[in-house]
UniProtKB/TrEMBL annotation:
Pfam families xrefs: DctQ
Signal sequence extent: none
Protein name (Swiss-Prot/TrEMBL): TRAP transporter small permease protein
Source organism of the structure: Vibrio casei
Major location (coarse): membrane
Topological type in the membrane: Multi-pass membrane protein
Length: 183
């Protein structure tokens, strides 16, 4: 039996250098899920075996999980694994797919820019007091880490990166549409 080559569309080939960087960094950061499992196991052990619960594990595990969830959005877009209505997308020509992608990228860019602005305003209020003094928002628990402020900053950064991704993908789709190789 002869090996059939995999078409380039089926491979997880990054479309640009930013996507390649996101994929590499995301693979490294995914190891934090293992760390979260270990600290959660530690918490269960301390709480139920030694009757000495921790004050930091739950908030730390939630922060790490939330952060990785946010990063997962740009990873999904970089690997082209985001949600798509394939019933329509798979039934149209390559040219129509490119046109649909262009519309998707314009709408996505608009959305991500608005969300970046909203996240920026959230960062402002979580990093500075109303009178302008630097002070990170904390959780208010006994442990009281600045995780809420850090997560809001991460969300802002991720939406900025997503906006750049949309611009790069949009330019790539327009360039491919103009080349007319897959009409």
């Amino acid at each position: 039996m002869k090996d059939v080559p995999t078409p380039p569309e089926a491979e997880d080939v990054p479309k640009n250098k930013l996507d390649a960087c996101i994929i590499k960094v995301s693979h490294v950061l995914s190891l934090l899920f293992i760390f979260t499992v270990f600290i959660s196991f530690y918490e269960v052990l301390m709480r139920y075996v030694f009757d000495a619960p921790t004050t930091w594990v739950h908030e730390t595990a939630s922060f790490i999980g939330g952060s990785l969830f946010v990063i997962g959005g740009i990873y999904a877009f970089a690997t082209d694994k985001h949600v798509r209505v394939v019933l329509i997308y798979d039934a149209v020509s390559n040219k129509t797919r490119r046109l649909l992608n262009i519309v998707h990228h314009i709408v996505g860019l608009t959305f991500s820019l608005m969300m970046a602005w909203a996240a920026y305003t959230m960062v402002q209020t979580s990093w500075f007091t109303p009178w302008g003094e630097f002070r990170l928002e904390t959780s208010g628990s006994y442990f009281n880490p600045p995780y809420p402020a850090l997560l809001k900053a991460l969300i802002f950064v991720i939406f900025c990166i997503l906006s750049v991704q949309f611009v790069l993908h949009l330019f790539q789709e327009i360039k491919a549409l103009r080349s007319r190789h897959d009409v």
